[in-house]
Specification:
It is built from 8 helices and 12 strands. By secondary structure, the chain is of the alpha/beta class. The strands form 3 sheets. It has a 6-stranded mixed sheet with strand order 6-7-8-4-9-10, with helices on both faces. α3 packs across α4. The chain starts with a strand and ends with a helix.
Length: 292
């Protein structure tokens, strides 16, 4: 059973009752599902799911393994059609605005002998960019800009295989950002990172969300490193999803129902929420390998 508190963060934490002034919800939603049902191989993964994420929000997709987190990403990317209900991404049908989406798939591993430099990896995120070909000046400037944004400029010229996991992840985030997307989707970007790097990457993503006005949608297993940074939570379990602000969704009653085991949610003296009793993730993630 896991019991982890949120680690050190770069800004004061948000208390359970405090509003962080989320972006206006009057604009066309960045992501919307209404009465949605997803099926794989004739089996219902989840149903009656309604989601509304505003532009510029930082949202997390959470839930037990196999609950349908990756299925949602496939729907939003236009790879899987809904069995029922409707979905829109940036105001259009899923898949219609792919050029406006930065996507970071589940963590790639680079062995020590991988020769491609970090800066070349980022360049591959530009439309039409090919490793080894010179970029137009505007493209080169954009690469430098995102490297500075994610704090990777000092090691971007080194081979990717020689960098730490946290450094590699910053470069992969830069690659997803270099095309200036309006929506950034990240599938388990904290997986395999230690707690300090989980906290650092989460803080980085929140800063990108605020400063660049990019909607961030992040899939994760452990809620604790994320809680004080989020505007919205989409929590899957038991074939359904609960959606809302973290303090509304992260409750003992809701999580115990979704996981089917007793889960406690504690509030610390400084107002942080800490989730205790979540089942440990198995070595192989069902969502990853079964695509649901």
């Amino acid at each position: 059973m896991s019991s982890l508190s949120a680690t050190r963060r770069t800004r004061p934490p948000t208390t359970a009752g405090e509003s962080r002034q989320p972006p206006s919800r009057s604009a066309v939603p960045a992501v919307r599902l209404d009465g949605a049902e997803a099926r794989i191989g004739g089996r219902v993964v989840w149903s009656e799911v309604s989601i509304d994420i505003a532009p510029g929000e930082f949202a997390a997709i959470l839930g037990p393994n196999g609950s349908g987190k990756t299925t949602l990403l496939r729907v939003l990317l236009g790879e899987l059609a809904l069995a029922r209900g409707t979905a829109s991404v940036l105001g259009r049908p899923p898949g219609a605005e792919k050029s406006q989406i930065g996507y970071l798939p589940q963590r790639r591993h680079f062995d020590g002998g991988t020769p491609i430099r970090g800066i070349d990896l980022v360049r591959l995120g530009l439309d039409g960019a090919r490793w080894g070909l010179p970029l137009r000046r505007s493209g080169a400037e954009r690469v430098d800009e995102v490297l500075e944004l994610v704090g990777a400029g000092r090691y971007a010229a080194r081979p990717i295989g020689a960098l730490s996991g946290g450094e590699q992840q910053r470069l992969l985030i830069a690659q997803a950002l270099v095309s200036q997307p309006r929506l950034l989707i990240l599938d388990e970007p904290l997986d395999s990172l230690d707690l300090p790097n989980q906290s650092a990457v989460t803080a980085l993503l929140e800063r990108i969300c605020r400063e660049q006005q990019v909607t961030v949608l992040l899939v994760a297993h452990d809620v604790n490193p994320l809680l004080s940074y989020l505007d919205r939570v989409v929590y899957f379990g038991a074939g359904q999803a609960v959606v809302g602000a973290p303090a509304q969704v992260i409750t003992a009653e809701t999580l115990s129902r979704l996981y089917g085991v007793p889960v406690e949610v504690l509030q610390t003296a400084d107002g942080r929420l800490v989730v205790v009793g979540l089942p440990e993730a198995p070595a192989h993630h069902t969502d990853r390998h079964a695509h649901h």
